């Protein structure tokens, strides 16, 4: 196994990780910014106000994107298993 193959495998793993985590992180960030703006305009400085809407928004996003995430992860895993004979020679 050549170093370039190891780097390629690591690069693909990092790309699939970023691709799968991006929707959840983006939704959490957008909801957090909206709540921060709401707190700044109303001067409500309750620390626990941010957690419940963020958790709800991330869970709803996970509910809608879980099938896409599983398809991507299964495709990546199948490609990885198919490439094993090429990698061990």
**Multimeric status of the protein:** single chain
Q: Which structural class matches the secondary elements?
A: mainly alpha
- What's the helical proportion of residues? over 70%
Count of domains: 1
Task: Report the uncertain regions.
Answer: none
Order of helices and strands: HHH
Number of strands: 0
Mean pLDDT: 92
Compute the CA-based radius of gyration: 19 Å
Please state roughly what percent of the residues sit in beta strands, choosing from under 5%, 5-15%, 15-25%, 25-35%, 35-45% or over 45%. under 5%
Largest sheet, described in full? none
Number of helices: 3
Q: Which geometry do the CA atoms define? A: elongated
Cα separation of the termini = 7 Å
